[in-house]
Amino acid sequence: MPDDLSLLKKPAFAEALDALDDLLMQSGKAFLIGAGCSKCAGLPLMAELTSTTLASAKLSATTKAVLAAIQGLFDGAHAANIEDYLSELVDLVAIAERRGGRGATNHTATLSGENYTARQLKDAVDEIKAAIADVIDVPVSMDVHWKFIQAVHRPLRPGRMTAARPVDYLLLNYDSLIENALALQKVRYADGMNGGNSAWWDMATFEAEGLSARVIKLHGSIDWTEVPGDTHPRRIDKKLKLPTGNDQKVLIWPASTKYRETQRDPYAQLSNLARRILRPPSGTQTVLTICGYSFGDSHVNIEIERALRESGGELTVVVFTFDEEPSGDLKRLHDDMHISDQIRIYARKGFFHGATSVISADDLPWCKFENITRLLGGER
Q: Mind spelling out the 3-state secondary structure of 273-323?
């Protein structure tokens, strides 16, 4: 049964939604989409992804021991998850490799009194990524994402069938829901891959003429793999038997991966493209709509803040959040008088924009991705 949207007909909330409609009609559109937008399709939120991955049969005894030790390092931490553990592990790989590269006698990293070589830690990274992919690569429901793409790409005005600029989707998820929905809706898009079921990495695809959408997967994808001799990702049909063998590694990056990983392509290429998207050319406007993201990744938050400050007022950030009101980094941004007018927050208990705060005693339904989709489609 769909949620009741009648609360949003109250004048103050209706005005906030009408203003959003006007913004989206007049501006370039970008969406930052997090894990909360995949739950409706049957995929896990981060807590469930963490518990299922930790219990995966794909993890060897060594990897389980490494993960148990890393979990212990996070005792007392708030909502630590599998991406945090994976990020910690990537850092440990760098430590062991740096020591080995310098010829140190101790060229291992120590966890809970046990010494692990860079090779052992790398194998653990690969196993965890494969386990994450196994959890996510399951049958999913396309209903909401189908309607979302339909709503975003519907004609904005009579007689206007295509936008002047492609819609940009900045994805923090590893799944392929958005790409599949775009294809099913026959929206021409680029995701950096050139080809079909099997494809190779080609940044030029993002600059092709006639695109209606671009998909920027900032943390990689479960259908990207790394093959020997190529530092860029490939997409390979799983039914193929390759001359190089079929043990390709899943190419995903944890949310908090540090400097060393972010300098590698294609991560660095995608990050640079995202930065350009969030800094619209002079005289143009871009609206970044954020859904399903809890502002838990400091790197992403820093990029959003920098873009707001460097956009000359031509970037507007729209946030749909399950928090009752702005909190954490989002509250800090909202409270900053230099950029607060550029941020519109549709929270569970109110609407917040600059000096305007409209509070609701009841939960507002605009937090859920399903309902955001309905609102973007014109339902009230």
A: HHHHHCCCCCCCCEEEEEECCCCCCHHHHHHHHHHHHHCCCCEEEEEECCC
Model pLDDT for residues 1-51, shown as the tens digit of each residue: 899 999 999 999 999 999 999 999 889 999 999 999 999 999 999 999 999
* Cα gap 194→55, rounded to integer Å: 35
The DSSP bridge partners found for residue 289 are 31, 318
Q: In total, how many domains does the chain have?
A: 2
The continuous run of DSSP H or E covering 266 comes out as none
18 and 111 part of one domain = no
- Assess if residue 1 is contained within a domain: no
- Structural domain boundaries, residue 368: 6-42+140-376
Last residue of a domain, one of 102, 136, 170: 136
Tell me, yes or no, whether 32 and 68 share the same domain.
no
Identify the CA nearest to 217 among candidates 257, 247, 255: 255
- The whole-model pTM stands at 0.93
Pairing between strand 220-226 and 249-252?
antiparallel
Q: In sequence order, which residues have a C-beta less than 8 Å from that of residue 19 and are 6 or more positions away?
A: 344
